[in-house]
Amino acid sequence: MTSQNTTEENKRIVREFIEAAFNKHQPDKAGEYMTSDIKWHGGTLGTVEGRDNFVGLIGAIVTALPDLRNVELDIIAERDIVSVRATVDGTHKGDLLGIPASGKHVQWDAIDNYRVVDGKISEEWAADDLLAFVYGVGAYTPPWLAGKA
After folding, report:
1. How would you class 124 by CB atoms within 10 Å of its CB: exposed for 0-12, middle for 13-18, buried for 19 or more?
2. Do 66 and 91 contact (CB within 8 A), yes or no?
3. For 84-111, how does the pLDDT look when each residue is reduced to its tens digit (9 = 90+)?
4. Which of 85, 125, 133, 143 is deepest in the core (most CB within 10 A)?
5. At the topology level of CATH, where does 3-136 sit?
6. Closest CA to 107 of 125, 131, 84
């Protein structure tokens, strides 16, 4: 298999994972795309290790945002890394990150980098605009936006 075929296959795997996990709200099916020892690096949210724990995190997200949609804007692959730039949106109908359901529709940008090894996602680095999320649900107002509505 050529390098190009491998990168295209890796992009396909990541796209199918995103579709199952976030757009079809099937975290258990998303687990089929992960290694058992997957590591999710969530920046300020910390690191989640292991397929069951990561599936649980995805389940909490799609439960809190039951109409969640992850729309790919760009996808780039090189060697075993696939990078996706996306817009994510949904209605905040359940507790998430300790924030009670607001009923508000929110949207944020995300850049996620995935490592694909032997046809499975073994690692993810998530860079989501959490400030846009917490501002969108009314849990925080940045000082530069205070007084503007």
Report:
1. buried
2. yes
3. 999 999 999 999 989 999 999 999 999 9
4. 133
5. Nuclear Transport Factor 2; Chain: A, (3.10.450)
6. 131
Query: What does the alpha-carbon distance between residue 40 and residue 109 come to, in Å, rounded to a whole number?
Result: 18
Predicted confidence at residue 148, as pLDDT, reads 72
pTM of this prediction exceeds 0.85: yes
Q: From start to end of 64-128, where are the E strands?
A: 69-78, 81-91, 105-117, 120-128
Residue (of 73, 110, 68) closest to 89 by Cα position: 68
| C-alpha dist (Å) from residue 124 to 73, 77, 81, 105, 120 | 18, 14, 9, 26, 11
Predicted pLDDT at 44: 86
Phi–psi pair at 8, nearest 5 degrees: -65, -40
Alpha carbons 130 and 46: distance in angstroms, whole number? 13
The number of CA neighbours under 13 Å toward the Cβ of 89 is 7
Q: What is the pLDDT of residues 6-40, one digit of tens each?
A: 999 999 999 999 999 999 999 999 999 999 999 99
* Cα separation, 61 vs 96, whole angstroms: 7
Q: Give the HSE-up count for residue 113: Cα atoms under 13 Å, Cβ half-sphere.
A: 8
Both tokens of 2, joined, read 């050529």
